[in-house]
Design a protein that fits this description.
Chains A, B: Keywords: Cytoplasm, Methyltransferase, S-adenosyl-L-methionine, Transferase, tRNA processing. Chains A, B: InterPro entries: Alpha/beta_knot_MTases, RNA_MeTrfase_TrmJ/LasT, SpoU_MeTrfase, tRNA_m1G_MTases_N. Chains A, B: GO terms for molecular function: RNA binding; tRNA (cytidine(32)-2'-O)-methyltransferase activity; tRNA (cytidine(32)/uridine(32)-2'-O)-methyltransferase activity. Two copies of one chain form a homodimer. Chain A is α/β, with parallel strands linked by helices. Chain A is built from twelve helices and seven strands. Chain A folds into two domains: 166 residues, Alpha/beta knot (3-Layer(aba) Sandwich); 69 residues, Helicase, Ruva Protein, domain 3. Chain A is 47% helix and 11% strand. Chain A has a seven-stranded parallel beta sheet with strand order 3-2-1-6-4-7-5. The termini of chain A are far apart. At the A-B interface, helix 1, helix 7, helix 9, helix 11 and helix 12 of A face helix 1, strand 5, helix 5, helix 7 and helix 9 of B.
Chain lengths: 262, 262
């Protein structure tokens, strides 16, 4: 899917931004970069340094004279745009675009172009009207102009998320699904303690709390209930349970010679 | 909600990246920037030019000596991290983090810190273990190192999307987050312990574990890291923190007459 997404930059004027775009694309697994009438050199010290290892995308980038040439083979062209336009156009949020992407990229010959305008003036109305739809990245109304590489980063990230969620729907790759519960993920290295192990711990804990005179069964208040809630919430692993039991045993050993108390 | 999200940059070495982060933050409506032991000047021609109009965030940025100081008042600290770590930690995707945010930011005194590491080496294990959870931005396995400003851009974008969807879901704003984290729900009856209170607890705990001879700082293995992970995962309330501190004090009292040991 990601290999069918093309990033199109129109009239870019700073090599560093082209390098930053290349890095953002490669980070998210995109590789098809098209430059329309760039207003600067593409391969410079600045662009290579900002690409930071993704400069092969600078070398493989195709250069076109017009947006028509750059998107000629594309089945969907979406222009990045600020919201209000004289002529209303189908407008997508980055997430709505991502939701459409898997279907749009299904056909073998499909190509989706994400078109970005000039650093200073964006896309012209003529260029926006070459696009099937426009995508607007929500921004602070008082400060809406995103850096070019940042805008590409956000859309490329949404493309990757769409690709990953698509992959996760296939039976094998249940990776992302596992992250639904962060706690579950944190258990990956060990099994959860059994309920019996937890009950044994709570009994042991109460004995020790009485020994160190922190807990008085005659006046329990809600001490054990609160401690239960805390530890049950943490879903301890077996290994963690062993550590907590070990701490209780060490506490008993360190205090034993003081029994019976004065 | 967005005003309760703090971006924490640790050991940043390029002023341009700090400027890029300021621009990304202001674009998405974030304003709280904290710098921990920066390895470069903050206000430079490069940082101001990359901030491109958001340089007021550079001037208002707070500088701290350590991550503990920068997140001391935070109720949730999330560290940006590559996936595999020696000791697995609760791991969120940027979207799962965004889903949690509305509920996390509900209390008036809540503060959420998103912590980013050095350009060259990221966050240390010690720094990652100061965080309740880690967030991993999905990237191309062959090219996973995101530019610092790009990483902040992605998470800031997800924060803004969460804020926008919350606004559109009013009044049932807490809907999405409630489904994500039962932990959050369990905190309803009391305030969360601050990060500083947790750090004080871990210091006290380590002293006591040494006293009862359960812990040998010469051979730490991963004991304190495992205990940190367990208690940070449980998100203790202030009242629970008081109970745990009380247990440590009672343990010290019950063992004191046996010091020094034979």
């Amino acid at each position: 899917m990601l290999e069918r997404v093309r990033i199109v930059l129109i009239g870019t004027s700073h090599p560093g931004n082209i390098g930053g775009v290349a890095r953002a694309m490669h980070n998210m697994g995109l590789a098809d970069l098209a430059l329309v009438a760039p207003r600067c050199d593409i391969i410079t010290q600045d662009s290579i340094s900002r690409a930071s290892g993704a400069d092969h995308l600078l070398h493989s980038a195709q250069v076109f004279a017009s947006i028509e040439d750059a998107v000629a083979d594309c089945t969907l062209a979406v222009g990045a745009s600020a919201r209000s336009r004289t002529l209303p156009w189908p407008m997508l949020s980055p997430r709505e675009l991502a939701d459409r992407l898997p279907a749009e990229c299904q056909p073998a010959d499909s190509r989706v172009a994400l078109v970005f305008g000039r650093e200073d003036s964006g896309l012209t109305n003529a260029e926006l009207q070459r696009c099937h739809a426009h995508v607007h990245i929500p921004t602070n109304a008082d400060f809406s102009s995103l850096n070019l590489a940042a805008a590409v980063q956000v859309l490329a990230y949404e493309c990757r998320m769409a690709w990953l969620s698509q992959a996760s729907h296939e039976p094998s790759a249940s990776g992302p699904a596992a992250t639904v519960q962060p706690v579950t993920v944190s258990q990956a290295d060990d099994d959860l303690a059994s309920h019996a192990a937890l009950e044994n711990y709570f009994e042991h804990l109460e004995r020790v709390l009485i020994t160190i005179r922190f807990h008085d069964p005659e006046k329990p208040r809600q001490l054990m209930a609160r401690l239960r809630r805390l530890y049950l919430r943490a879903r301890p692993e077996q290994m963690e349970m062993n550590i907590l039991r070990g701490i209780l045993s060490a506490t008993e050993k360190a205090t034993q010679h003081k029994q019976p108390r004065e």
